[in-house]
Write the C-alpha cells for this entry.
Amino acid sequence: MPEAVIRIENVTKVYGTGEAAAAALSGISLDVERGAWLAIMGPSGHGKSTLLQIMGGLDQPTSGQVHLDGTELTRLRPAELAHTRARSIGFVFQSFNLLSHLTALENIELALWFGGKGDDRARGMALLESVGLAGKAHLPPGALSGGQQQRVAVARALANDPDILLMDEPTGNLDSASEAELLSLLSSLHGQGRTIVMVTHNPAVAERAQRVVHVKDGRIDKERFNGA
C-alpha cells in the first residue's frame, strides 16, 4: 500500500461553546497518500476549508489526531508546528495573499527568509521562471493579472521545496484561460512527485485530481477515483 503522508483520524472541530457550539467537522478520518492529487468538494460551509487548515496545522482539531509524514501535529509546540509547516507544506489560497507593497520577487524572497534560507534572490528568480513569470519580477501584485498573481503565489508556496501543496479554491478568482494555465502548472508539479490537496467547487478542476472526496455536514459523504 502507498505510504500516507497525511493521516486524519476521527477529527472533530467545534467552534463556540454551549448553545452557540457549532460542529464544522464531525469525526473525519482520511489518508492522503504520498504523491497523490486529492480534490475536496462539497457545499459551502460544510467543513472543506476547515479540514484543509487542520491538515496543514493552521488550525487545531477539537479532538482526533493529525499526522504529517509520521509526526502527530496535535502534540507539537507552536514553534515546532511552525517549523514543520515551513519545511513540509506550501499553501495557496483563493485570494492569493500576496503583499501589495512588495514586488513579485520580494514576495517570494520573504517566504525564503521565513523558511530560513536567507536572502536568496537567485532562487527567487528561478522560482518565478519556473512559473513563467521571470519577466514580471519587478512588478507589484496590483500590476499583474489574477492568473499571474496566482502563479506568483504558487512560486511562493514552492520557496522551501515542500513535498505537499495545500490549495484552497486556487482557481476560484481566475478566468478560464488563467485556470487552464494554473492546472497545467499543477500537473507538472504533480508529475515531479508533489502531493496536492485542493479544495474546489469546480467539477472540471476536480477531474484533474486522481481522487475526489465530497464533504457534507462535516463528514465524508462519498468519494471516487478518477479514471477508475
In short: The helical segments are 48-55, 78-88, 104-114, 121-130, 146-157, 176-191, 203-206.
